[in-house]
Amino acid sequence: MSFLAVLKERIRQQFGPGHFREDDFSFLQPGGNDHLVQFLYKNYSDEYWELDDWNRNHLLLIDIAESLDIEFKLDDDGLFAVLQSPGNGETRQVQAIIDLRDELLAIVYYFGEAKKCLRLNQRLIQSPIFHPCYLDSEMLVRIVEVFERVIGIEYDFEQLPALFLEPVVMKGQMRGDPVHGIFVEYSRRFSSYLNICVISGYLTDGAQGSLTLNGDGAIRTDSCRLSSFIEIVGYVLDILIKKYQTLSQNCLTQWSPLLEHRVLELTGKPIEIRLPFSVEKIDGLIRFLVNGTKDPMFLGISERISRKLWSIKSTEIRTTEQIEFEVAEDLIRVFLRERGTIPLYDKVEKFLRQHVSAHLENWNQ
Amino acid sequence: MFEYSCSGTHLANWVLSQVNDTAGAIFPKRKKWSFYIKVFYPAGSDKSALMILVANQNECVVFIPIDETIDAQQIRSILKPELIWSLRSDFKWASYQRILLTCERQHSRVLEQLDEKNTGNTVLVLSSESVYFSRGNFENPRLEYRLSQIEYDPDLIPGFFPDSRLKVEETIQKSLFYQHFFHGLNRLWLQGEKSIPLRSIVSRSVPCWSHFRRVDQKRMMELINTELETVFQRFFEGLLTLDIYRKKASSQPEVIIVFPDPPETKKIMSIWRRQQKSALEYLHGAAKQLSIDELQLSTN
């Protein structure tokens, strides 16, 4: 059984068999026409990794209940958790199911009225326990392959005057039939400036509904076939799992002592980001990395270490997660030393793609 | 033409940057190369040196960075076969190759010490232009080939291993160490800690801390303590203080760093940030008078 077939089975159990008579069209719509899926990075504290899956997931749900007052109920096997609307007996409705099977990611499927779903999702992604997975512009473009036509894009790129002498701005949104052609042309000609944050389009199955992907790791759709829906969720999930696995397995630079030999072993490497053009005012970039804006807000210090390179060590004020950078005009190295820093890296990458260059050559290439 | 000069940590970091999966690294990770760092005391010396072991399943290449802090006697003992023997007893690799790694400036000094008759000595030199063997080569021809293909820029070597030049008092470019040290303090302050023993934060800031000998640890602690007294007084008046704590009147004094209340306004944070910056500039400048070529090539 595929990854998503298990989920489908689970949803069937929750809603009862009657609901799935017209399997292909009524997958996620017990109460409304809109479907929403959100991909989240599970921001466990380090101690949790010492626990087994069940306990880890259980504690995660307790944390959610405590900080957000939202009570998910963990299934017996500890793989899924269900949130039901308050109420008694017959009127109780399933509001959301979290798929906790992946060790790094959680996938939340929302059911029912669109407004309620969005509101609930907003609360979940603002909690420190979850970090909305960042789908960067280049990932979104890759995902477009599963679309038949692109019918809408939003793009948001604005170089900062603090970093560039003649900042480039390319912001806007387009909807409608001509978008597809324009989108193809734009991504060919302006790859360094086209920072896509939302993209929507029709799927290849000929269904009426369109599907919208959001850079913050959400997929929204109206009346789409189950098969297409599963296809796209699976596609995005693969990309995200690969991303966060690479980050946590290869990009955490850590020293681990091998006690018996009195040596330290080095694992992981920094993320190296090559910019397609140089930052003209390097001071501005350094200032951002020690200071941040609203999100992330840093407390950091910089030090010049060679003719070309600056070393920057910063702590995010809200979470006290720490991140280190080495910066040259066209090169940014990011040292992640702990798993908890991965969400912080996403924020920094988002800043770079929005305000420095929409195209970055990094680990993901 | 200036001779390129850099610290042992920088040399070590160059080696560490070669374990990578990006194209062109000498020791690709996918070929099962891994990296270890070791603090050791060359026989007959009370000063520490670094050793980087790069190994796959069978072979181990032992790099020993030689900078100005490694003296003639230490080099002599590094060259002795005992060094490899002791590794053999500790580890299980089948073959070992020892490579002295040095910068252009220290190069002639190292060559002078090498025994002409002993052809087994291998010296790898980092200059401002390239990395080359001035004696010997890699025993593994594949490594030799990759070395000839590498891209090299001494100004862009990543800082895997934070600077620990505090091990020798005379020649310190301290600011990098203290940057790391303040980085540690920042987190504790933001987390609302009230105080922390100096020893505990130093041991977290100096890599391999527990591998240094007691006397070295003590020397480093004293050095840092004295320096912080000046720095805190000068730049962090009313923010950070050093306090002495004794469990009992007779017990060993423990130096404690006392934090101010956690920051509530952006203003306090920006004062804090500015003071750290000035403290680093001060430590950088007070460390030593820079010679012209260092200004040109390594420090500036």
Task: Describe this structure as you would to a colleague.
The complex is a heterodimer of chains A (365) and B (300). By secondary structure, chain A is α+β, with helices and mostly antiparallel strands. Chain A folds into three domains: 3-132, TATA-Binding Protein (2-Layer Sandwich), CATH 3.30.310; 133-247, no CATH class; 265-355. Helix content of chain A is 30%, strand content 30%. Chain A has helices spanning 3-15, 53-68, 114-126, 137-143, 179-189, 226-250, 282-291, 342-355; strands spanning 34-42, 73-74, 80-84, 94-99, 105-110, 130-132, 147-158, 169-175, 196-203, 210-214, 218-222, 254-258, 263-267, 271-274, 298-304, 310-316, 322-328, 331-335. In chain A, strands 1, 2, 3, 4, 5, 6, 7, 8, 9, 10 and 11 form an eleven-stranded antiparallel beta sheet that branches. The longest helix of chain A has 25 residues, at 226-250. Chain A starts with a helix and ends in a 10-residue tail after the last helix. The model of chain A is unreliable at 19-27 (pLDDT under 50). Chain B has 300 residues and is an alpha/beta fold. Chain B has two domains: 8-156; 165-297, no CATH class. Helix content of chain B is 40%, strand content 19%. Chain B has ten helices and eleven strands. Chain B has a six-stranded mixed beta sheet with strand order 3-4-5-6-7-8, with helices on both faces. In chain B, helix 4 (104-113) links the parallel strand 6 (95-103) and strand 7 (123-126). In chain B, 37% of the residues are buried. The A-B interface holds A 250, 253, 255, 257-258, 261-267, 269-270, 272, 290-291, 299-309, 311, 313, 315, 317, 320, 322, 324, 326, 328, 331, 333, 335 and B 16, 19-22, 34-39, 53, 90-91, 153-161, 175-176, 179-180, 182-183, 186-187, 190-191, 207-208, 210-211, 263, 269, 272-273, 276-277, 280, 284, 297-298, 300. Strand 13 of chain A pairs antiparallel with strand 3 (34-40) of chain B, so a sheet runs across the interface.
